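Expect chain and fold; thus:
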Amino acid sequence: MSQIVIGRQFRGPPNSGNGGYVCGVLGREIAGPATAVLRAPVPLDQPLRFERRDGSVLISNAEGQLIGKGDPAPDAKLPEPPVRPSLAAARAAGQRYAGLVQGFHPICFTCGAGRGEGDGLRVFTGQLADAAKGVVAGIWTPHQAFAEPDGLISLEVIWAALDCPGFFAWVEREGRHGALLGTMTAEVLRRPAPAEALIVLAWPIAREGRKETAGVALLGADGELLARAHQIWVVMGPRPPAPAPIAAAEAS
């Protein structure tokens, strides 16, 4: 058993860790595709227990409460991007990012418009033109501050970049917000270098009760698939109305 600390830089809500980043902290310890499940808000700037047990990776607080769990997912059926937009199309979509005009989470490590370059990721995704409702895209150019000693962007930061776009896919589809990331299954096929212009794409897949599933992908400028994920979001507040069916082309 060892200890880790999730610093305040990596927050999502004001007082807890960014879900994608924490899932990535778990996932980076597992070779190949991994599933990370968050069981409780992640305390910031506090020592947390970090251990391997029976093939799993666990994060718990000082009292032993389980916060997050990561497991190998070699048989995971990860979603394929329904479209592969150009850089120009993704850049135009990012200018429609709802967080630029509404007060979502300006301090969020992934999508916060109030975070500076090299401090937050500034992944801004908006509705993609000529795509199904809820398919969002944007540009991410990783900063040198998030590179590992080998010169490539760290795995946990890549997972973080895939986090919030799945949330905004459902914001665009339903015009509603208020959900927390519960489960994320992801694989990273290639780690990008700093200053590489990348496309982040996300789309809604299905909703059952309070659970919304989304697909997310990280693409190179030429359409190369660098990473992808399947997410389960838990809707907060009153039970939402039943959603309109998602066509097969939208859900793929």
About this structure: The CA atoms of residues 198 and 220 lie 5 Å apart.
